[in-house]
Amino acid sequence: MNPEQRIRQHFENSAATALKTQAAIGLQVVDAARRIATVYDNGGKLLLCGNGGSASDALHFSAELLCRYEKERQPLAAIALPADTATLTAAGNDYDFSQVFARQISGLGKPNDALIVFTTSGQSPNILEAARAATTAGLSVIALTGRDGGPWRICSIRMTWN
Predict the structure, then answer these.
(1) Which of 9, 106, 117, 119 is the most exposed place for a label (fewest CB within 10 A)?
(2) What is the rounded CA–CA span in Å between residue 13 and residue 74?
């Protein structure tokens, strides 16, 4: 396959994946958007977390909310929990790594808030503990996961795609 064919194939695959994703989780995305709008309508904020590349997704999403996305608007309250390295390392050292986000949620989360978790495996103990802490604190939990969602049944909204 020559370079032009490879590029064309990549775009075709990307379009097919987008259509499959819309069919698989389109309604959950709408539910999540409505939940997020309700959080902001009620004066709440979003807390976001993930590990590795998913941590980068959390930071990117938070930045779009705080700055702007597509048009000029007021900032929307969002905190990317992986960005606080001092708290991450303190919680990891003083407790254990499974608590690095749960401690932040326990201190920052309020009932009008929501937690958005990004997890490829769906099995990370620190992300599961974050969801438990959020549920205990009365937050809605939105999970974007790449697995079947086994332990993620605790979530308000779960979007699973492989």
Answers:
(1) 9
(2) 36
Residue 125, domain member (yes or no): yes
| pLDDT 10s digits, 54-112 | 999 999 999 999 998 889 999 999 999 999 999 999 999 999 999 999 999 999 999 99
pLDDT tens string 136-162: 999 999 988 876 655 665 566 665 655
Q: How far apart are CA 133 and CA 131, in angstroms?
A: 5
The predicted model scores a pTM of 0.88
Distance between CA atoms of 24 and 20, rounded to whole angstroms? 6
Distance in angstroms (rounded) separating the CA atoms of residues 72 and 96 = 41
Residue 118 burial by Cβ neighbours in a 10 Å radius (0-12, 13-18, 19+):
buried
- Structural domain span for residue 103: 26-160
